[in-house]
Structure formats: C-alpha cells, structure tokens
Amino acid sequence: MNKRQDNLNTLEKEHFDVLIIGAGINGAVAAASLAARGIKVALIDKNDFSSGSSSQSSCLVWGGIKYLESHEYLLVNKLCKGRNNLIRHYPSAVKEIRFLTTIQKGFRFPVWFVFLGTVFYWGIGRFFTQAPKYYLSKQIKKQEPCINTDNAQGGFEYSDAFLLDNDARFVFNHIQHAIQAGAVVANYTESLGSQREGKDNWLTQVKDKESGRTISIRSKAIINACGPWVDQHNKLSKQSTSHHHVFSKGIHLIVDRIPQKDRVLAFFASDGRLFFMIPMGDKTCIGTTDTQVKTPETSVSVEDRTFVLKNANALLDLPARITEDDIISERCGVRPLAIEAEDGKADWVQLSRKHQIDINAEAQHISIFGGKLTDCVNVGEEIAEAIEDIGIQLKSLEKPWYGEPDLSSKQQYLKAFSELDSLTHQYSDSPLTERCWRRYGKDAFTLMQNIKAHPEKAKAAIEHTAFTWAEIEWIAENEMIVELEDLFRRRSKTGLVVKKEVLINAKGFTDVCQFLFPENYQEKMEKFIRSA
Known about the structure:
Elements: H1 2-13, E1 15-21, H2 25-36, E2 41-44, E3 60-61, H3 73-89, E4 94-104, H4 111-124, E5 133-135, H5 137-143, E6 152-163, H6 167-180, E7 184-186, E8 189-196, E9 202-208, E10 214-224, H7 230-236, E11 243-256, E12 264-268, E13 274-280, E14 283-287, E15 291-293, H8 302-315, E16 329-340, E17 356-360, E18 365-369, H9 376-389, H10 407-417, H11 432-440, H12 443-453, H13 469-478, H14 484-490, H15 494-497, H16 500-504, H17 509-516, H18 521-530
Parallel strand pairs: 1-2, 1-10, 2-7, 4-12, 10-18
Antiparallel strand pairs: 3-6, 4-6, 5-6, 8-9, 9-10, 11-14, 11-15, 11-16, 12-13, 13-14, 17-18
Helix pairs in contact: 2-6, 2-9, 11-12, 17-18
C-alpha cells in the first residue's frame, strides 16, 4: 500500500515521456517495452492491474488454428511465431500442451480434412511443437474415457500452449519488468480524461479510487491501452480514430478436474465454435461462449451457464452430470474486436482478435485496439516503433525486454535453494522453488533467502491454498494489493480453484487479511465476501 502511495506522489511530481492508460496485456507490454528502452513511463489503471479482459481469458497461448477456416494465413503465421516465442522465452510459465479434439458426425467438414488442417498448422508453426496424431473414435475413448464418442466420427491430437499460472499473473509479471526498468505504476487510479496543454504536453487528471484524491499527470505522449474501454477514453480526450471496438462475451466455468491426463479436450460446441476443457491445476476450466454484447460491462447469465453445462454434459461420458452445484467459480469477459470505424458494421462472428494501432502523430496520441495474449510481444515491439514515429527517441536494447531470467540464473537459483522443496505443503501443485521462480522471477532469490533464514515462513498462510507466509509478506510489500480480489483472482488463481465459502472459512484467511490491511481488514473482508 505504501509503495502505491509513493508512486502516486511521483506521478504527480514528475513529467513523463509517455503515460499509458490501461494495465491489461497491451498496456503492460507497452510499459515494459518502452521502459526498457530508456524513456520515462507512467502506467495507470482505473481498477486493478489486468482486471478486465486480460484476467478472463482461456489462459491459452495458441497460434489461432481456427483462423485457418477464414483463410487468415498471415495472421496464423504471426500468432504461431508469437506462441513459439513465448514458449521459448518463458519456459517455466508457458508450456506446450496437447489438444485432444473430437469431431462429431455431421460436422461441416470430414474429420480427415480437419486433421490435414492441423498438419498444415503444425507446418505454419515451423514444426516447433509435437506432431499431430489421428485417432479413430475408439482410440479417442481409450485415450480419454471421459469423452462421449457415441456420435464421434474420429479425432486428432495437436499441440499449442497454455499458462501454468493464470493470465493476470502473466500480465503482472510484465508490469514488474516495467517497474524494474524504471516505470512508475499505480492501480485503482482512474483517468478522468486527457487534454493538450501547449504544443508538446498532455495533462491527464486522475483520481485515486482509494482516497478520492485527484492529481494531474503530465506527459509528452499518451497511449490509450484501455482494452474494451479504448473508445470511451478517446471520447474523454477528444480523439478520433480509424478503428473502434465491437464486443463478444465469453464465459468459463471452473469445476473439479475432468480429464485423466494433463491436456486440453477440444470439441466444437452446438453453435459450431471451438469449446475447450482446460487444465487449471487440479481443476478444469470449461468454455467458452460467444455472444455479441454492446458494452464491456457484462456478467454471466443463466443462458450462458446453461449453454456451457449443456455442451459439457453432451460431449462427456461421466458417472454424473455436471450441475451448477459443481461450479467452483466463473469467469466472464469480453473480447474487444477491432473494426474499421468507417465501415460501421462487420460480421462480428468472423472478426479475429488481431490488434490494430492507431496513431495521431500530431497530437502524440496512440490507441491500441483488439489484441490477445499470444501476440503480446509483437504489440510491445510495434508500440516502440510507434513512439519513435511520433518523435520520442528510444535507446537501443542490449537484451530483450521480455522473458524469464537466463537459464544460468535459474540453475544458480535451483542449486542454492532446491533443498527447500521439502518444505512444500500439500496444496502446492509444483515444487516450491519452481513455483516461486515462475511467479516472481529473479525476486525469487530474495524470497527464498528469507525462507532459508526463517523456515517457518514456508508454512501455508491460508488453508487450501499454495500461499506461504514468505509470499504473503512479499506480495504485501511489492505487489500493490488494494482489495482481496487482487490477491486471490489476479496475483494468483486461488479464487478460481477454491470456492469462496471454503476460502473465507479457511484457517489463516482472517490472519492474512489482517496482515494485508491492518487498519480496515474487516471492511476489506466484507467487500470480498459480497463480491460476485
């Protein structure tokens, strides 16, 4: 909390080269890319970091296989490159995973034709992953008994990738990279609009949503990375753009683990769209829906929930049907889909998630539309080019601005602390050293040194979770937790895989709340309990 207040004071006092508004994946990579290139960067978000679409995804890092059907080969090529790049540079966090896909009888293409598509996809992806495999329906049943193959004509297995932790954590790690490179960041800091002040300056009024205090931030340039709210903020700042957004709502339901193996089960739902069952620790994330909505503010409806459960039960062969009582948590967000503003209309079902960057060079204002996690490095690179195009000079990079620390650092870390894995408690889904490296990068050295000096800090802070007390201390000091949702739904996936009523009654829950919010922990607990 003190770190956040210090940052707000700095935001008010200093003059920045760039103010980035919105701290989802687009804002996070823009901040990391630009700060690494030596300019003064400020990053704010009206809510928590990655609290919008970037915390409601399928947590898949995929090359866009579905875009083959619409013949967007260049986009698939770009996304496959992005996927391979993330696997290569985040070997602890981004993992290749097999997709076991079942094709039902009567599908719009024969199974052999769809399988050939996966072979073509593998080729576009430079044969970076394991090769696809073809399966008869009886082989699918042998591979995964939980799949209902009564109406299956066959299937196949191919590879893409996924995040071992949640998407919001991946975004936050980019923000940490930006901070380490000198960026000044603050969550729960709402932009009230930006206006030109003179010829070479922007003045942005922002409100600290915790205290109600209003401050001004001065910058040479503005990057609008507000995700689904890009158009709204451009209206506040009187900016016209070549693109705007339409929205598709997607929801996921998290239930107890379904597949036997650690892989994704892929199907085509009753509406013809891809439908996934994705590993999430010892749980399964099921979805997604695709419903056009008019605004980014949306929620899970009865129809959404019914659609997911109906499709899941039809596609699976389980001892008992999945019901609403089995739902541990729900995710709901919108896909912001970029469309040419002059067209006004588009077939939103056919729109891809490719990003668009609109530049007003005269006003030194940039807007980012669309985008997805897989393509995040490309967004960071293109934003650097755009900033130079509007007249702000960047330094050359000596090393990539993204990625985990080098392999030698990890080996040194594992050698120094591997004996501490014996302290891992029963709720951890991976060894303590691996998990801390994946989540905290080089900061894991400091965290594990603390545990080595004080072994009692490796104890579980909250029953049914993987949090150690050493991590809670680190997060409280460094990760700007303002609400309990920040800790449980964004800095970790705890709130996704543990039912809320179980969490709030768990041993240690109140102690952690009191540690994080010593002055008003009861208020924060009640707010968390009331939240949807």
